[in-house]
Amino acid sequence: MEDIDAIAVLQDPVRRRLYEYVAAQDHEVSRNQAAEGTGVQRTLAAFHLDKLAAAGLLETESRRLTGRSGPGAGRPAKLYRRAAAQHEFSVPARDYRTAADLLAEVAEAARLDAELQEAARRRGRAERGDGRPEGPEAVAELLAGRGYEPRLEENGAVIRMRNCPFHALSERFPPLVCGMNLALLEGLLEGAEGVRVRMDAKPGLCCTVVETSKNNEN
What we know:
- Keywords: Coiled coil.
- The protein has 218 residues and is α+β, with helices and mostly antiparallel strands.
- The chain has nine helices and seven strands.
- It has a four-stranded antiparallel beta sheet, with helices on one face.
């Protein structure tokens, strides 16, 4: 029931807005920042942020934002960031995770990387349909719809993704699943002018990065 309880916490619209704001940041967020970013009162933001933390959706830490210590440094601020834990549920219970683990284990043992990547490209093309995203914002919107939580950097020249939809599998079978993920995105963005997907694994981020036309002029 823990996953159901955690997801139920997001039914409150203010709480959900605060969660989405914190999750979209690439750094810890204070109560003041969350309140200003979502347009709610600080006391209300603090109440809902602590509810989200209690449900396991946010993680917290206390730190002095001034960087000083000792007398006169001020009280530590409570900071929030999205929790790394994954929450999901289905009714009645389904065990897709075990099936995915077993299929990945067999595919890796049989060295079916190339076949899996080609299937992923086909799936990406099918999900893309006839549309072609134009511009970094449109690409980011398409990626957001797939759950990647994209973040535009370098004035839109680079799009990094804060979430990997296949995170649990990629931890167990990194070459197999990251190669599949890259191929899926290649198919999804195929035909989008001036867009290139490449591997660029960094801690806490998706193993792929999207570069737009500003990095692909040559």
